[in-house]
Amino acid sequence: MVKTCNFCRGHSDYYYDEAQLKRCAGCQKVYYCSTQCQKADWVYHIFDCKPSRPINTADHLARAVFENLLPEHPQTCDDYGFSRAFTAEEKSNLLGLYIGLIKVIKIPPKTIHGWRIRGVLVDEIKATFYKIPERTRGGYFPWFLQNEHIISLAGQPLPEDTMHNHADEMMRSWPLSSANPARKEIVIICMPFSYPNGAHTRISTSGLTSDLHRADHRKKNGYCVLNTSN
Ligand SMILES: [Zn+2]
Ligand SMILES: [Zn+2]
């Protein structure tokens, strides 16, 4: 196999020689052309390497931030509020807040993990953004100030009727374009992030009473389209 830098794959600004590639000391499996590349790759490579500490949900959050994707890891969604962000807008604002924190202000995942463990995540996020000039704080921080319950209540179970309310709201706000009535598909709010057993909240307006079969749900934008024909 051709040796290449695990981060820039040879496309860094400067030429490097294969002979100069240094092997990752953790796993001895991948190579880097420079310490910059090794550092930049760590947010991803930590999952394939042998890190000196256990991987935590802040690591999953950081990877999602750098991929510009909503986290999918269930415990991460619980720990950092994504399970309590119901609309696509709330989810994307929350991701935007963490992008500011991790990618722009460069707070390391292990610091964020420490904040959460000590129960000071909300306070520390505020303190961090207040330290930088107001004009550089962007739009996500003001949104967060008005919605801090999403993070402060993260990980706490949702009352059943709250979920139903949100389900009804979602039903109105999310067009059923991807569901197929001919195949008796309905859209349901899937709550795998809140409930490790994969519990679903059925949208009551459909009037369908068949049991939810975990196996045949298809994930779509964080929600599920469920085939109820059987
Ligand atoms: Zn490189
Ligand atoms: Zn490694």
TrEMBL record:
InterPro entries, per the entry: Znf_MYND
Domain MYND-type: 5-49
Keywords recorded for this protein, A-Z: Metal-binding, Zinc, Zinc-finger
Superkingdom of this protein's organism: Eukaryota
Keyword Metal-binding: yes
Pfam hit, one: zf-MYND
GO molecular function, one term: zinc ion binding
Protein name stated in the entry: MYND-type domain-containing protein
